[in-house]
Write a structure and sequence with these properties.
Elements: H1 2-16, H2 22-26, E1 43-44, E2 50-55, E3 68-77, E4 82-85, E5 94-97, H3 103-109, E6 117-122, E7 138-148, E8 165-166, E9 172-177, E10 190-199, E11 204-207, H4 208-211, E12 215-218, H5 224-230, E13 238-243, E14 259-269
Length: 270
């Protein structure tokens, strides 16, 4: 499980925070005519963020601060140079938790509804604070494609309920949704899963759901509680596991203590 946390955190942050200049090398999207400064008709918030709706959306609700959003975007510096865009290269939309990006994005996208395109003028204090490139005021055109809330913390996250099953190792589990599959993975199989993990105080510490991409890995290369638990599942099943510290990170690294995971087994590769 060690590489899962770092892998998904890196993929989440890398979607937007770790900007590269590769997109600029492949294709350049012309800057808007008002890139140098927010126009008089732009709305401004107390933080200094300015924005203007370019295309109205069809949605009725706004994303929450920690929602998983899917967007298309292009960013320019005020001299009109494009420094990043999801529309260049393969043109794949970006998906990430809204509270894992620069604060101007976190604030600005919460003003939007699905289907909307909005231009954001983000002051340096709400972007990279002058600590890295690109510096200064940044301008983004953002299209909000969709959003969804993060996985809900289980009500029984503090301890396994009475109807949870237990194995001889101390692993506790409960089927949340039955699967249609008939076979179980072996420890040497590669599996593809969606998962979310919490500490017993209800804090989520890792989630493939929030990264927007399932995880695939050999089942014998993760923590022991996962290796044992996922072998109990069939394809299509979602199971909640309460994994004691001895079957997790053994107190050698965070997260410490018992860990709780909701795991959906998508597929097994023999």
């Amino acid at each position: 499980m060690r590489y899962m946390s770092s892998m998904h955190l890196a993929s989440i942050i890398g979607v937007l925070v770790a900007f590269t200049m590769a997109a600029h090398m492949q294709s350049t999207i012309p800057a808007p005519p008002d890139v140098a400064a927010a126009p008089a008709n732009a709305a401004k918030t107390p933080s200094g963020l300015a924005s203007r709706v370019i295309k109205a959306g069809t949605g009725k609700t706004h994303p929450g601060r920690s929602d998983l959003v899917t967007v298309h975007y292009t960013g320019w510096t005020t001299d009109g140079k494009m420094f990043d865009s999801s529309k260049t290269g393969g043109g794949t939309p970006a998906t990430f938790p809204l509270d894992r990006v620069i604060s101007g994005w976190t604030e600005g996208v919460q003003l939007m509804v699905a289907g909307e395109t909005r231009r954001l003028w983000i002051p340096e204090a709400l972007a990279y604070k002058g600590q890295r490139d690109p510096k200064g005021l940044l301008v983004f055109d953002v299209e909000l494609i969709s959003f969804r809330p993060p996985p809900q913390t289980p009500s029984d996250v503090k301890a396994p309920p009475a109807d949870a099953k237990k194995t001889a190792s101390g692993l506790a589990y409960k089927v949340v949704k039955a699967g249609a599959g008939a076979r179980h993975p072996r420890s040497t199989d590669e599996v593809t899963v969606n998962y979310s993990g919490w500490t017993t105080d209800g804090k989520m510490f890792d989630s493939s759901v929030m990264s927007g991409q399932p995880a695939t890995f050999p089942l014998n290369q993760v923590i022991a509680g996962w290796t044992e638990g996922v072998q109990l599942m069939v394809e299509g099943e979602t199971t909640r596991f309460w994994i004691p510290e001895a079957l997790a990170y053994k107190g050698q690294r965070a997260p410490y203590g018992m860990l709780v995971f909701d795991v959906e087994l998508i597929s097994i590769t023999k």
